[in-house]
Amino acid sequence: MVTHSARLPVAALFGLASAGWLSRLPAQADPDAKVKGGGAFPPGWHVRTDKNKPTADVRFVRMGGGFHVTLGPAVVLWRDADRATGSYSVSATFTQTKNPRHPEGYGLIIGGSRLGVSRNRYTYFLVRGDGTFLVKRRVAGDSTVQVTNGWTPSDAVVKADSAGQATNQLGVVVAGRAVTFLANGKEVYTARAADLDTQGIVGYRVNHNLDVHLGALVVRKR
User: Fold this and answer.
1) Which phi and psi (to 5°) does residue 141 adopt?
2) Is residue 72 in a domain?
3) Most CB atoms within 10 A, among 78, 85, 123, 186?
């Protein structure tokens, strides 16, 4: 079946682009960027891309007491030593530095297991430059389970400015039967621990085509 959009004349498409329509295209119409200097990572760190895409288009380097990532494909970044069990908190500060073509998320993972293989599992908490957040579970490969009802607006999330820049401190507190998600010190969501993956590796998740500075992970037992 031919969609109506397939019949738009070229002139109309240029008009839509100039009006900003292309900046709101879904991810499927926004291919992964090619990144120079990718493929080599800080010692002890692991990188897994969504759908096992090439890590050559992932630039992940130490910078300013933390790390900087320039993407290509969406990634999960972790160290085997960063394991949290029982009751704990984990936090990090993230700075998006450039405008993506459309809003994409960055944030924390908790409860990671088998992250390097197709049966990987974890819970993730992301924010986007449009002032929304998301909590989701990855349950095997690229299969996911929604926790929040999609991307959810919150005044606690700092929106990106006209240059695409925004800094957000994100945190997750696992305390007994409850898990609390915080943006800039304010609670944005609470879930039952039994409904999430909480015990295991903590780390970062950054979605495709983003340029983000990652503050150091801070993990504390409670």
Assistant:
1) 60, -120
2) yes
3) 123
CA angle 64, 76, 26 (to 5 degrees): 105
Which secondary-structure segment (H or E) carries 17? helix 10-18
Tokens, residue 75 = 């990634």
Q: Which residues contact 186 (CB under 8 A, 6 or more apart)?
A: 154, 156
Which residue type is seen at 154?
S
Tell whether 174 is covered by a domain.
Answer: yes
Q: Which amino acid is at 142?
A: D
Structure tokens at 133: 């957040």
Q: Which two tokens stand for residue 22?
A: 């292309």
Cα 152 vs. chain centroid, distance in angstroms? 15
Asked whether residue 93 is assigned to any structural domain, the reply reads yes
- d(CA 186, CA 137) in angstroms, rounded, equals 22
- Report residue 122 as tokens: 């974890």
194-215: per-residue pLDDT in tens? 999 999 999 999 999 999 999 9
Domain contains 25: no
Confidence (pTM) = 0.87
* Total count of domains within the chain: 1
Place of tokens 């397939």: 6
